[in-house]
Design a protein that fits this description.
Layout (H helix, E strand, L loop, with lengths): L20 E6 L3 E3 L16 E5 L7 E3 L7 H5 L7 H9 L5 E2 L2 E5 L6 H20 L3 E5 L2
Parallel strand pairs: 1-5, 1-6, 1-7
Antiparallel strand pairs: 2-4, 3-6
């Protein structure tokens, strides 16, 4: 398996954080309970992603991932998907807003080329068009 690294240009934030909309993209396998779980039986990994609403409640979310111990995240989803924290930061005026949509995917994959060329661009396009976020918080599991 080969992995090629490409340089990602630094992109400075063009506004105050207090005026920025923030979204979460997590590789921790977070999704809504009413969504199809990630396929943990696929030995090569599940390359799909799930959209999570900015107004979703913690009790509506769960983790489907078998490549890390998510016991703590099962107790408090904010460990890997800090949506409540973003809401608190908005209430304090530290950030401008919480994005309408966020993304969860299962970070484990052996299909790195497909992740890099297909899944990651699809996630980026979705975030760009649907969440209208200025800042993305990336979390792992």
């Amino acid at each position: 398996m080969q992995l090629h690294r490409k340089c990602i240009p630094f992109t400075p934030l063009d506004r105050e954080l207090s005026k920025a909309t923030v979204a979460i993209v997590t590789a921790a396998g977070v999704h809504r309970k009413d969504q199809e779980p990630f396929n943990i039986a696929d030995e090569l990994g599940d390359l799909t992603f799930r959209v999570i609403g900015g107004n979703d409640k913690n009790e509506e979310l769960m983790v489907t991932h078998h490549h890390y111990d998510h016991t703590d995240a099962d107790q408090d989803i904010n460990v890997v998907f800090p949506l409540d924290i973003l809401r608190e930061l908005k209430a304090e005026g530290f950030i401008g807003d919480v994005a309408r949509e966020h993304v969860g995917y299962m970070g484990y994959t052996m299909r790195l080329k497909q992740m890099y060329e297909e899944t990651a661009p699809a996630i980026a396009e979705h975030i760009n068009k649907k969440s209208r976020a200025d800042v993305i918080v990336l979390t792992g599991g």
